[in-house]
């Protein structure tokens, strides 16, 4: 389908990067971009977001090009979306809806599909107001009352029932994952999670470390479902490595909420590998976005290594840099290329050292616990092996 992209510059420093990202999102969703319209405003118009003049201009483009819809690089209110659709007479999609559509397209696992549907329904719940305006009760006498209010209430009840059912299903799956996590904990497996901005190269690095063959591509949200694999690092040391969903600017809150169960793999990790696109000009903004989501899900205090990927593009050699202990969770930076494999062996060495350190801590803790128990036994005057 043919779409027009619309962006409004409100003076934000990263507007250009955000709008370029919108085009990638649209193409990832299968849209054909036929025109890009950019305007400047000090604040959004309450009724049409872009103002009546710009709206009329885009309406003319919709007819002349022609276009099947219009995609906005912003979150629209239900009223703004409805008003714009009346002016354009085609479908209007905001950034939030577009991201939700891509997630729905890419989710493969049963749990991933449930999470996306839950996010979509929560987003839709705010859009039901006047969605059935053609059935609303009208002022007048007998014979002039339509079933609109009843229809709206019925839709809301059906939506609420589905949300409750999906939430219950996800809660059950979360319990299963918790059981699996406890089993890994009993096995004292060092848990590592890959996090990062979408298209930073997480899945490519995951494949380099695990040879799992997880789908990866140069596109936004190439993979959505969390994948966990065991990785043998040598000397009898294994770790559990999880590849999680990528983050993005203005990630819809509904998605963060819906994917919290999946992101718990991150919350319960012993170490995070924050994969960063070192070749991106907006990498600082992307890092901030990821750290914001990590803080929201309660994972901002977990030890973290910044993995600066794509050195095959930047020309920087593989290297490790220790970071000063200033109270932050970040412990170091490692430069590598997940595509070529340069620097990946250095990462394996660092992971092995971290896993060994963790195992040593566990063994020391067990020894201390055993000594404490022995001291308590002798202090109580109970001989070892006694039935009393």
TrEMBL record:
Coiled coil regions in record: 156-183
Keyword Transmembrane helix belongs to the record: no
Main location: cytoplasm
Residue span(s) of domain Hflx-type G: 190-359
Pfam families named in the record: GTP-bdg_M, GTP-bdg_N, MMR_HSR1
Domain of life (superkingdom): Bacteria
Keyword GTP-binding: yes
Assigned keywords, A-Z: Coiled coil, Cytoplasm, GTP-binding, Magnesium, Metal-binding, Nucleotide-binding
Compartmental location: Cytoplasm
Disordered as annotated region, ranges: 362-388
InterPro entries: G_HFLX_dom (IPR030394), GTP-bd (IPR006073), GTP-bd_M (IPR032305), GTPase_HflX (IPR016496), GTPase_HflX_N (IPR025121), GTPase_HflX_N_sf (IPR042108), P-loop_NTPase (IPR027417)
Family: Belongs to the TRAFAC class OBG-HflX-like GTPase superfamily. HflX GTPase family.
Function according to Swiss-Prot or TrEMBL: GTPase that associates with the 50S ribosomal subunit and may have a role during protein synthesis or ribosome biogenesis.
UniProt xrefs under HAMAP family: GTPase_HflX (MF_00900)
Quaternary data: Monomer. Associates with the 50S ribosomal subunit.
Protein name according to UniProt: GTPase HflX
Organism: Piscinibacterium candidicorallinum
Gene name of this polypeptide: hflX
């Amino acid at each position: 389908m043919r779409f027009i992209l619309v962006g409004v510059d409100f003076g934000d420093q990263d507007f250009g990067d955000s709008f370029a990202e919108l085009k990638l999102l649209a193409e990832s969703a299968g849209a054909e971009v036929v025109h890009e319209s950019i305007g400047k405003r000090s604040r959004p118009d309450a009724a049409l977001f872009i103002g009546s003049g710009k709206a009329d201009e885009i309406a003319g483009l919709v007819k002349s090009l022609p276009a099947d819809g219009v995609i906005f690089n912003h979150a629209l209110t239900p009223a703004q979306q409805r008003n714009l659709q009346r002016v354009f007479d085609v479908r209007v999609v905001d950034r939030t809806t577009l991201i939700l559509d891509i997630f729905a397209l890419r989710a493969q696992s049963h749990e991933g599909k449930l999470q996306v549907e839950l996010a979509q329904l929560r987003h839709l719940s705010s859009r039901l107001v006047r969605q059935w305006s053609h059935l609303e009760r009208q002022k007048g006498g007998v014979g002039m009352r339509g079933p609109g209010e009843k229809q709206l209430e019925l839709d809301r009840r059906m939506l609420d029932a589905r949300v409750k059912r999906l939430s219950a299903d996800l809660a059950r799956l979360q319990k299963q994952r918790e059981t699996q996590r406890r089993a890994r904990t009993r096995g004292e497996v060092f848990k590592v999670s890959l996090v990062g901005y979408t298209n930073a190269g997480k899945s490519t690095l995951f494949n380099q470390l695990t040879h799992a063959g997880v789908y990866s591509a140069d596109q936004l949200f190439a993979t959505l479902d969390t994948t966990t694999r065991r990785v043998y690092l040598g000397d009898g040391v294994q770790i559990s490595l999880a590849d999680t969903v990528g983050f993005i600017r203005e990630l819809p809150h509904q998605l963060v909420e819906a994917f919290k169960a999946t992101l718990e793999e991150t919350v319960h990790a012993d170490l995070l590998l924050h994969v960063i696109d070192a070749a991106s000009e907006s990498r600082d903004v992307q890092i901030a976005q990821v750290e914001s989501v990590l803080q929201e899900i309660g994972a901002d205090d977990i030890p973290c290594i910044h993995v600066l990927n794509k050195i095959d593009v930047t020309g920087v050699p593989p290297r490790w840099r220790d970071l000063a202990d200033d109270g932050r969770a970040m412990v170091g930076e490692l430069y590598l290329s997940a595509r070529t494999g340069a620097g990946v062996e250095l990462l394996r060495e660092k992971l092995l050292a971290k896993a060994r350190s963790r195992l040593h801590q566990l063994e020391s803790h067990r020894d201390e616990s055993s000594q404490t128990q022995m001291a308590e036994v002798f202090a109580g005057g109970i001989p070892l092996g006694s039935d009393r």
